[in-house]
Design a protein that fits this description.
Oligomer: single chain
Number of helices: 10
Helix content: 25-40%
Shape: globular
Number of strands: 15
Distance between the termini: 62 Å
Strand order of the largest sheet: 13-12-11-14-15
Length: 334
């Protein structure tokens, strides 16, 4: 029975690969340095939808296919959602790549002129780009300023620019882009996030929220049900387990729900990653997740500009503190 399943899967994959010979698909083949065997993930935004997929690296070799009427930026991850590389693809392209798990900016891509320019730039600046911050932002800003009509500029802005450090700078770079370097499917979600961060509503009173919990049920939060509220917005890679969860445990031991509501909201890309990250929390507070990262409907009105991010509010929803420091948030609570 199992052999039959493998044969059927192989036949389906062969049919998909055969379909990639036309102009309605793109195909990506590659190797991973170190020749690992594990599951891989990829996603891209095209045809007004987010497309996600899973494939496998077998002794470092992999292949997958996709389709979009518009050119797309494809992001490739390992099974734990660690980025291994980004590439540019159009239907009809056959992309070849070599992925570096330690530094995605040392990965190489072929198959079209955009990937050649992309590879040349990221390889030359791999160490700087690996550490988001002022140096990486300055490097990207210079490239965009020098190459406003290059699609590589849009890829750098949407994928690598640290907008949390300079929202206005990110917005000005987008405005520099020429029409050919400004495809909506590649830059639109990034622009939307910037607009939410810059909104004047960001400091207005916190409103009730509804979101999914770890049992995939809907949970609700209303600031009026507690004297104070602490809203924590983080992901699996923002130091949550080491620096945030211990503080939340201390707060819950000291204050009950009526005194302090705690909303621990995740912007992880995937519920699987989120659920794994909270598995050992033993939480006695609200934990939730929402699709769309910082643009998730539950938190988009808060104008979160970076993660982790903390909001302290009173029972009317008035924000007493909003910022990047849990230590400062604790001062307002105490």
């Amino acid at each position: 029975m199992r052999r039959g399943v493998y044969i059927l899967a192989a036949l389906l994959w062969m049919c998909l690969m055969a379909a990639c010979g036309d102009d309605e698909h793109f195909k990506v083949t590659g190797t991973i340095e170190g020749a690992p065997t594990f599951n891989m993930r990829f996603h891209y935004f095209g045809d007004d939808a987010l497309h996600t997929g899973i494939t496998a690296s077998r002794e470092g070799k992999f292949t997958f296919a996709g389709s979009s009427r518009q050119p797309v930026m494809v992001e490739i991850f390992d099974n734990d959602y660690h980025l291994m590389g980004r590439l540019y693809a159009r239907n009809g392209d056959e992309i070849k790549c070599v992925l570096n798990r330690q530094n995605p900016y040392k990965s190489t891509f072929e198959g079209n002129d955009v990937n050649k320019r992309w590879t040349k730039f990221i390889n030359a600046n791999a160490e700087v780009l690996l550490r988001p911050g002022d140096d990486a932002n300055a490097l990207i800003a210079k490239y965009v300023s020098d190459n406003p009509d290059d699609i590589v500029s849009a890829m750098l802005i949407s994928g690598s620019y640290d907008a949390a450090r300079d929202v206005a700078g990110a917005d000005s770079l987008i405005r520099m882009l020429g029409p050919d370097a400004h495809p909506l499917n590649l830059i639109e979600s990034f622009e939307y996030m910037l607009n939410r961060v810059a909104t004047k509503d960001a400091s207005k009173p916190v409103l009730p929220m509804t979101f999914a919990d770890s049992d995939d049920s809907l949970r609700s939060y209303n600031p009026r049900h507690s004297r104070l509220s602490l809203i924590v917005i983080s992901d699996n890679e923002s130091g949550r387990a080491d620096s945030i969860v211990p503080q939340l445990r201390r707060l819950r031991r000291k204050y009950n729900d009526k005194q302090l509501a705690i909303v621990d909201f995740s912007v992880d890309r995937d519920t699987t990653v989120w659920k794994q990250s909270i598995r050992n929390d033993s939480s006695r507070w609200l934990q939730g997740w929402g699709a769309g990262s910082l643009a998730s409907p539950a938190i988009s009105r808060l104008g979160v500009r970076a993660i982790p991010f903390f909001v302290v509010a009173d029972s009317t929803g008035k924000q007493l503190y909003r910022g990047l420091s849990i230590a400062q948030a604790l001062k307002y609570i105490k």
